[in-house]
Amino acid sequence: TKNKIVRKMTELSSRVITIHKRKTTMRLCKNEWEALKDICKREKINRKMLLEMIESRKDPKLGLTPSIRLFSLVYLHELSKPLLEKQHKPDNYKSITDILDKIS
Q1: Is the pTM of this model over 0.85?
Q2: b/e map of 18-55 (b: 16 or more CB within 10 Å)?
């Protein structure tokens, strides 16, 4: 049912990652891990290298996990800008409601 799908999408998954020769655990939900995978595939970069780049340039006030979430959001937003400009429909909220339905 819908509740099971939402729980599955928002359930946090822990993974041990190595950043600059130190191991740490990071918890992201399934969609966040998939977004990272897609970004790495598109950029032809391995996840370790991308995470190290984010770690090296992140705001010192932010932890690694929020920095990765922010990076992914900004990356995908920038990627979508040309599409959004072409297909702008001011009164079409279907995509917004579809996403809200998935996460609520």
Answers
A1: no
A2: eeeeeeeebebbeebbebbeebbeeeeeeeeebbbebb
